[in-house]
Amino acid sequence: ADGYDPRAVQDKWRDRWERLAAHRAGGPDDPRERRYALDMFPYPSGDLHMGHAEAFAIGDVSARYWAQRGYNVLHPIGWDSFGLPAENAAIKRDSHPAEWTYANIETQAESFRRFAPSFDWTRRLHTSDPEYYRWTQWLFLRFYERGLAYRKGGQVNWCPNDQTVLANEQVVGGHCERCGALVERRVLTQWYFKITDYADRLLDDMDQLEGGWPERVLLMQRNWIGRSTGADVDFVIEGRAEPVTVYTTRPDTLHGATFMVVAADAPLAEEVVAPEQRAAFEAYREEVSRESEIERLSTEREKTGVFLGRYAVNPVNGERIPVWASDYVLAEYGHGAIMAVPAHDQRDLDFALKFGLPVRVVVETGAPDPAATGVATPGEGTLVNSGPVDGLGKADAIARTIELLAERGTGRAAVNFRLRDWLVSRQRFWGCPIPIVHCPSCGEVPVPEDELPVRLPDDLRGSDLAPKGTSPLAAAEQWVNVDCPKCGGAAKRDSDTMDTFVDSSWYYFRYCSPDYTDGPFDVEEVRRWMPVDRYTGGVEHAILHLLYSRFFTKVLYDMGLVDFTEPFKQLLNQGQVINGGKAMSKTLGNGVNLGEQIADHGVDVVRLAMLFAGPPEDDIDWADVSLQGMTKFLARVHRVASEVASAPGADPAAGARALRRVTHRTIEEVTGLVEATRFNVAIARLMELVSAARRAIDSGPGAADPAVREAAETVTVLLSLFAPYTAEEAWERLGRTAPVVTAGWPAVDPALLVQESVTCVVQVAGKVRDRLEVAPGIDAGELEALALASERVVEALGGAEIAKVIVRAPKIVNIVPRR
Ligand code: ANZ
Ligand code: ZN
What we know:
It is a single chain. Helix content is 36%, strand content 19%. By secondary structure, the protein is an alpha+beta fold. The strands form ten sheets. Strands 10, 11, 12, 13, 14, 15 and 18 form a seven-stranded mixed beta sheet that branches. α2 (50-68) packs across α20 (603-612). The longest helix has 21 residues, at 679-699. The chain is globular, with a radius of gyration of 35 Å. The two termini are 70 Å apart. Zinc ion binds next to loops. Keywords: Aminoacyl-tRNA synthetase, ATP-binding, Cytoplasm, Ligase, Nucleotide-binding, Protein biosynthesis. It catalyses: tRNA(Leu) + L-leucine + ATP = L-leucyl-tRNA(Leu) + AMP + diphosphate. It holds the Pfam family tRNA-synt_1g. Belongs to the class-I aminoacyl-tRNA synthetase family.
């Protein structure tokens, strides 16, 4: 309607930006201060979708803002291109996973070009390129040398659908995070990264992230690491030489321990069970092995268990307590056994009431008797029935009990973590091969550095890749059989590949020197660019990816390769794009296609709508978004620029002062709002400035006024963060020859921010009689004179004599008449 079509100008500007290399990061000699704007790199699962568009629109605002502020900005892009979907697609299409992967990458790259985030395309990387995974393997070997990569046998999570193991982190509520299948437990030998060695540092270093990361993400990380403090207590088991150690957070309640529970699936249960109870125990254990993880962890479920026919001796009072096995105690936490204090722990109480075991209160909390109510009292109180700690409060009783245990050598203070080591091996093809050879005489032998990368074979396709329970690589004879690097004898390559979270744990280092061939990154370049100033991406990565990346950074620090311990100073989690109040899904049929939105409305309209819909952290309901409103706004900007275009440029100082004040206040405010990532409010301020410029053209000084040009130019530069194509077009209209992406951020004239007048209230005998507009710096004498000269004041006084004049410049004058 306004003769401006945001879609029409896209190709023209895209080509020009690319010719200009407008978004390329400066080299080592660039003297400007540096900023690193990082976006979570995409997985090439198809074309870009609405979620990508939102995340990358948000990330781009920071990058463009810093560039306009004169920083040397690094804003790279790449692909997280290993992973299962590519393999599944290859099986279905009888092709190689690379075909699907790289075709999708090209599709996404083309969509990105149109969507125009200010990427430095020269740094593009793909984690599935041998040039990249060579260094993933190199890092694996460094971890191996440091004892941080190791193999162990044990129970693992197994997805029966994807036919591969899963890390604990990839099991959500007992189901495979990817495909939703119910996860099984299997005993297998697998590779792990020893992230537990870093548990304390991963927690403590979070102090550095306070303020820069969302509070809830820090909380999620803390809970995931799950540091708990308490004591290890040794119980002698009758008829067994070794004592059994239990971990407890409440050593103060030791006198209330009335039985012990061992995890039914822990080797310990098998060891301690008495001969006459073995049959019952084995039947129970069989039952437990068929239960899913969800069932086991449910608190709703009735407790189950079996007596093991043994007694343990409480080290503080010599009391004999029965030893049971149950599924509510986990084999892999603490020592896989607990002392049960039913009065003060709900799980233990449920168990005691079910099996008729005694309940003894040892902490008087004032609440009713747990044995009668069925409700345990875990809170604070005074110790009773507890010998030497009677009368103490919880904290003192904990400290005293630990002292007593330590004196007798039957216990000690202890710390436990929920965090487990990171299981990194996967029995799938499309991932980074593990650079280890297994030799019958030498054992595990690292692949020599000069033989990296261990490349994936390119002749496996289709059904060669179908899940068989072992890696498809194990069946690739040519590939798997090698000479041992140490003894030269016949040996086999490790046929597992790495979890793709390994690939993504270090890609942001690689961006600093993507073509470097002497190591995973150029140490100097990383020193220059990192840590990342702002990392933008989805909250679904709040735990895993960020925890692993933090772990990698600390290992690199310990290796002396980097001089910082946290990779991301600031984290910005965008919300989701939903439709009609619900997440988009095939079943609901409420999906919105990004390509269609862009074809219908243009890139700028889609970007602006996403940024204007609310704060970046909030979900965007696409059903509530007004694309027409955004189109109209951009057309208004375009029209203002066009009308001003015909007017000659002149010194803005000569222009309408009121409009200039609005312009400069807008610059000031938008600067603060963008810094604080309140992009939606920043856009609202721009809309107000456009309205002010419109009014100045229509009913003010007109389009030829230099202040109107100043307003139009300001709008254009500020708008370039959000709607870059329209901004570029308007800038050209305004007669500027260099593109707006190189314009620089407008400077604020502080004189125009100063309030020019304030309202002074004039009272006579306490009643407001007049209001005067005065200069903020007016002196008391001048203000008194002005007030006394006011017609309304004279009228109110009615000739009365003045007793007193109280002046509080510049706001109040109070005149007191004589009575
Ligand atoms: C006695 C006790 C009394 C406990 C009481 C709690 C309250 P967090 O905080 O998660 O570390 N526990 C220890 N090992 C366990 C295992 N393998 N499986 C299930 N539960 C286990 O929890 C530590 C508490 O969880 C420990 O403290 C223990 O129960 C239980 F009034 O010991 B407590
Ligand atoms: Zn050998």
